[in-house]
């Protein structure tokens, strides 16, 4: 369990660093930030994609296979928020082309800050409230573990 938590934590730190790199660009004028925007956005997409794959393999697939998702309080809400946030990010990337960002830099900064705050809040919720519970359900039989069946 600790290895899995450490991997998920490391991936969340990668996401936080990638988001932080992009957020630092928002303190610059567009002309100064422009050359670094594409790589920063790509990096966020890469670390999120990698993390979602890990999360699915280590947590969600075992939960689905054992039909435990309904047993975990808040599980469905977190899965839904993750899916909605992923769709929102995809739409965001499509909407905010290089040209749109250049033309509406200040609006892009505001929208992207809000989106990244939502992402980081979800990461924090998963790390503190979701992963530990999910791992206990996966590692222990919830029908025979008193703390989980209560």
Walk me through the structure:
Helix 1 packs antiparallel against helix 2 and helix 2 runs parallel beside helix 5. The longest helix has 36 residues. Helices cover 84% and strands 0% of the residues. It is an all-alpha fold and 150 residues long. The chain is built from six helices and no strands. The protein is elongated and about 55 Å long. The two termini are 21 Å apart.
Q: What is the radius of gyration?
A: 18 Å
Q: Kindly report how far apart the N and C termini lie.
A: 21 Å
Task: Assess the beta-strand content as a share of residues.
Answer: under 5%
Outline: elongated
Question: What descriptors fit this protein?
Answer:
150 residues; mainly alpha; 6 helices
What's the structural blueprint in terms of helices and strands?
Elements: H1 2-25, H2 30-65, H3 75-95, H4 98-103, H5 105-139, H6 146-149
Nutshell version of this structure?
The protein has 150 residues and is mostly helical.
């Amino acid at each position: 369990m600790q290895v899995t938590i450490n991997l998920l934590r490391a991936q969340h730190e990668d996401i936080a660093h990638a988001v932080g790199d992009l957020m630092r660009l928002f303190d610059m004028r567009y002309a100064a930030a422009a050359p670094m925007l594409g790589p920063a956005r790509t990096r966020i997409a890469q670390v999120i994609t990698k993390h979602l794959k890990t999360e699915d393999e280590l947590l969600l697939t075992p939960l689905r296979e054992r039909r435990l998702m309904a047993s975990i309080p808040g599980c469905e809400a977190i899965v839904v928020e993750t899916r909605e946030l992923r769709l929102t990010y995809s739409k965001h990337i499509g909407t905010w082309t290089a040209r749109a960002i250049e033309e509406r830099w200040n609006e892009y900064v505001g929208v992207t800050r809000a989106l990244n705050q939502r992402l980081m809040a979800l990461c924090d919720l998963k790390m503190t409230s979701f992963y530990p519970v999910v791992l206990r359900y996966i590692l222990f039989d919830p029908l025979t573990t008193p703390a989980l069946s209560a």
